[in-house]
Design a protein that fits this description.
Rossmann fold, alpha/beta, 16 strands, 464 residues, Helicase, Ruva Protein, domain 3, 13% strand, five-stranded parallel beta sheet, extended, 21 helices, disordered C terminus
């Protein structure tokens, strides 16, 4: 049984035949090529497991062949052979991507060891790539957490459409995770190793957006001093994600309709038509059907982008997912910030589940991150979260019934003390006098309620 297939390239017919014969005796399948041109023809027709090439060839050299192999067949290791080996040549070969550089006359054992090492490295790389593909398929949705039945349905849709070329429209309120779903679609497709390019359409004026999407040529407008490749070309072979698509002007909508239909466009200031193979995913937090009825969005473009619609539910409609999401964000922040926080108190989690989260998943992520960074203990408590989250969360009577009176009154007490502290610019003596308690009692209450380390709470609502 053959060990592996090799392509041997050398312009010396005697060396080529003798080396090929010896390698076949060692169990390898060997193809031969006496020139650069014949070598690339064989390389493309029947890619070998390993390429061995002499540096000097009649119509090029081994470095040219190395560059070609690295560009067209990056997984094939290349061993260069030279009769004029120097340290400089060796360094140049390794920098250019060669696995090894051997010097003539070749020593059989040295050649065989080099071949075995190169093939072993290729095997490890291939195993890693296969593992990466498996991990991408398994964990492509890892950042999108949810047990809610609607989220499970979305996961099923992503799996079904990821490897198609169909245009996908993701809708939902701001902060629901549209960008993460778009990335998951890309990662679970066969395009996963190609670029994923995100364009925030709403953040760019029309003139700049056109150049950003389609590129421009030098002199197309004031300041265009050189050619620029647009995002569609950057995403060629991969995925382009157009966020906030409803903000596109009528003129830009016409251009987008054409590129979505034909995958062709002209850079700004150019008459040259560019063609791309790009998967398009779009997103909006607006109701496009209403925008069409109001005349703000083209009906033909709406039908073109609404091939497959993935609608993300707001966080307030998937309350059961809040603990799962909060724990997920907690682990992420602790790992990044190297904080040792193990979880949430029951009361804190209940507050999170009863807040309406107008900013959706993004707001929850920010709240958890802030709590971890500003919190003092291993467990996040109610006092670690912003005041607007606390005041916006109506804690049910069932929860209060299972707490002592002291625990039930802690929230209102904290808000009263915090309000007086702010009114007195955090002067504790004045606050104690205003509340009619002595300073020692105030200090103890502040410590118990998480107000012992004041920070600027005018915007964060920390109240610590």
């Amino acid at each position: 049984m053959s060990k592996a297939s090799l392509l041997l390239v050398d312009d010396d017919r005697h060396v080529l035949e003798s080396m090929a014969g010896w390698l076949r005796e060692q169990g390898y399948t060997v193809a031969e090529a006496p020139s650069y041109r014949q070598a690339i023809a064989r390389l493309d027709a029947h890619p070998p497991a390993l390429l061995l090439a002499d540096v000097r060839l009649p119509d090029g050299d081994g470095f040219d062949l190395l560059a070609y192999a690295r560009r067209r067949h990056p997984n094939i290791p290349v061993i260069l052979i030279t009769g004029y080996g120097t340290i400089e040549t060796g360094v140049e070969a390794i920098r250019a991507g060669a696995f090894d550089l051997l010097t003539k006359p070749l020593i059989d054992q040295e050649l065989e060891i080099s071949i075995e090492r190169a093939l072993a490295q290729r095997h490890v790389i291939e195993e890693n790539e296969q593992l990466k593909v498996q991990l991408d398929l398994r964990y492509g949705l890892d950042g999108i957490v949810g047990h809610d039945r609607r989220m499970q349905r979305i996961f099923d849709i992503v799996d079904s459409v990821a490897d198609t070329r169909a245009t996908i429209l993701i809708t939902g309120e701001s902060g629901t995770g549209k960008s993460m779903v778009a990335r998951a679609i890309h990662r679970r497709s066969s395009r996963r190793d190609r670029p994923f390019v995100e364009v925030p359409c709403g953040a760019l004026p029309e003139s700049l957006l056109e150049s950003e999407l389609f590129g421009h040529v030098a002199g197309a407008f004031t300041g265009a001093t050189s050619d620029k490749i647009g995002k569609f070309q950057q995403a060629d072979g991969g995925t382009i994600f157009l966020d906030e698509i409803a903000t596109a002007s009528p003129g830009m909508q016409v251009k987008m309709l054409r590129v979505l239909q034909e995958f062709a466009f002209e850079p700004v200031g150019s008459t040259r038509t560019c063609h791309v193979d790009t998967r398009v995913v779009l997103a909006t937090n607006e109701n496009l059907a209403q925008a069409v009825a109001a005349g703000r969005f083209r009906q033909d473009l709406y039908y073109r982008v609404n091939v497959i619609n993935i609608e993300l539910p707001p966080l307030r409609e998937r309350v059961a997912d809040i603990p799962l999401l909060a724990e997920h964000f907690l682990r992420e922040v602790c790992e990044e910030a190297r904080r040792d926080v193990t979880g949430f108190s029951d009361e804190a989690m209940e507050v999170l589940q009863h807040y309406v989260w107008p900013g959706n998943v993004r707001e929850l992520q920010n709240a958890v991150e802030r709590a971890v960074l500003l919190g003092k203990g291993p467990i996040l408590t109610v006092s670690d979260f912003p005041e607007h989250v606390l005041s916006g969360a109506a804690i049910p009577a069932s929860s209060i019934a299972h707490r002592t009176l002291k625990e039930a009154l802690a929230g209102p007490e904290r808000q009263i003390i915090l309000g007086v502290l702010r009114a007195n610019n955090w002067n504790r003596n004045l606050t104690a006098d205003t509340l009619g308690i002595n300073r020692t009692t105030l200090y103890k209450k502040m410590k118990r309620l998480g107000l012992d380390d004041p920070v600027d709470t005018s915007t964060s609502g920390a109240g610590r």
